[in-house]
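Table S7 (text form). Paired inputs.
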Amino acid sequence: QVQLVESGGGLVQSGGSLRLSCAASGSIFRINGMGWYRQAPGKQRELVATITSGGSTNYADSVKGRFTISRDDAKNTVYLQMNSLKFEDTAVYYCNANVRRSFYGLANDYWGQGTQVTVSS
């Protein structure tokens, strides 16, 4: 099995910063893409940022210039540095990883349990 555990969420004031971490563990041969998603109350889950195994990144327009996604393959961990936080960033943030568990196995998506980020106005 593969487990993803997020950490770093919490309460922060507008304009502040927060850094989320997501560590993958279990049966892992190779992690392909990784990403962060979020879901605000009353809204659908949306993509925040993704990063490929080669380090290419993609961001939602709403977070460009403020958020930075990165990964540490030695630790099987993906990070999301969030700066200049706004009230509208308030949501549950979920990490995602596409994981190949063996050389001949197919890759599957795995999700973390989510971590709450609350930005006060």
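Next pair, protein 2 of 2.
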Amino acid sequence: QVQLVESGGGLVQAGGSLRLSCAASGRTVSRYAMGWFRQAPGKERDFVATIGWNGGTTYYANSVKGRFTISRDNAKNTVYLQMNGLKPEDTAVYYCAATPGYGSSRTIYDYWGQGTQVTVSS
């Protein structure tokens, strides 16, 4: 089992920044690719970004490319999502997830955190 706990969400004005953290525990999470997803009210849970198990590969949704950066520190079992240039449409609950594979489909992710709310005001 892998346990994931997100933190760092909050309320920020448009154009501002936030850094989300995802603390992992349990199985050897350093061998899992990690991803961030988000879900706005009434919408599906959408892919945001993913990072390979060693941090060497990353992939972003077009909507966040150039504004968000995913990174990981395997020594701390933590994954980060640095979000800059936030827009009101980034408002959502952000979820961290772990997969033994790699990709943007939420169906390949076996473990999920409880989520952290990000609200961007205009």
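The chain has a mean pLDDT of 96.
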